[in-house]
Design a protein that fits this description.
alpha+beta; 5-stranded antiparallel beta sheet; Arc Repressor Mutant, subunit A; 21% strand; 316 residues
Length: 316
């Protein structure tokens, strides 16, 4: 009996491709040519079922899809993305996501239709493979080692992260989310509309110190005194202003300030706020509950159609 093929790991597979691309093209090889990578993958790694077609089509309710095609008894694959999406960074992420399905999951199933349906309606296995394809895409498009080199020891603000977004050909939101994965700073991304928080994501150090928002099942108002609510700021503040930390996080010490940055997206009628706090003592007893809730909330929001690429300011 043939032993089952062990599942492939999304980060390991993305890193394998990144190493190959860096060796072939050099370190300044960004943004990743996802289309060329997808169509050349099978030949490079000796597979006989290539992605032979990459097509933009009208896909109402879908971001992308991956279908098998019978080519005279030989299997090929068609990678399809929603041609109605006008944001290149979002299309790039979708193609990388479908490439992730091809590499990671095509031995287990034949059809992949990646919709905007609420993730809570999906079965647990569907959640797993969609999350794995997202991790693969994020790792491939924005390798953490390169991202770290780009930000270096510079003061991180939305201007610098927007430069990184341009380097990788992704949206600013996607770049900020990636930075939050590895930064040691206490940082929180808040996306709001009409004075209410839609979703938020905290870095690990912010999370364990209690700087987070429980948005799932809660209505949270953007606080008075925050830059996010200021209407008299003539220029979008990408570099940040110092404000009392207690405006956003009442449990922070009196006298502490945080740096708040914001960008307003007219296209999506949203405000993106990045909050960076000074170092603090961790409060690990608050971490476990919020870590699950914070990630689930963002996953639900993304699954309902508000992908990181949908809030693009740099990849238009």
């Amino acid at each position: 009996m043939t032993p089952p093929i062990p599942p492939k790991k999304p980060i390991a597979e993305a890193n394998r491709l990144s190493t190959l691309l860096s060796h072939t093209l050099g370190v300044d090889r960004f943004p990743v040519d996802v289309e060329g990578l997808a169509t050349g993958y099978a030949a490079q790694f000796g597979h006989n079922d290539p992605i032979a077609h990459i097509i933009g089509q009208d896909l109402p309710g879908f971001e992308g899809a991956l279908y098998p095609v019978d080519k005279g008894g030989r299997r090929e694959w068609a990678l399809i993305y929603n041609a109605a999406v006008q944001v290149p960074g979002r299309v790039r992420f979708t193609m990388a996501h479908e490439l992730g399905h091809y590499i990671l999951h095509r031995q287990a199933r034949e059809i992949f239709e990646c919709s905007q349906d609420d993730m809570l309606r999906w079965g647990s296995q569907e959640k797993v493979i969609e999350a794995e394809a997202d991790v693969f895409a994020s790792t491939l498009l924005m390798p953490i080692d390169d991202f770290r080199r780009q930000v270096g020891n510079d003061l991180v603000d939305l201007e610098l992260l927007d430069i990184c977004a341009g380097r990788y050909g992704v949206s600013l939101t996607a770049a900020v989310l990636k930075w939050l994965e590895f930064t040691l700073q206490r940082a929180v991304l808040v996306v709001s509309r009409d004075g209410y928080v839609l979703w938020a994501r905290s870095s690990q150090s912010a999370l364990i110190s209690g700087a987070f928002f429980r948005t799932r099942g809660h209505v949270i108002s953007v606080p008075e005194g925050s830059l996010a609510l200021a209407h008299d700021v003539a220029v979008q503040e990408r570099q940040g202003l110092a404000i009392p930390a207690q405006i956003w996080f009442p449990k922070e010490p009196s006298g502490m300030t945080l740096r708040e940055m914001k960008i307003v997206s007219d296209r999506y009628d949203q405000t993106m706020s990045l909050l960076i706090l000074p170092k603090a003592e961790p409060r690990p007893w608050e971490q476990e509950e919020e870590e699950e809730e914070d990630r689930t909330t963002l996953d639900d929001y993304i699954a309902s159609g508000h992908l990181p690429g949908a809030n693009s300011t740099s990849a238009k």
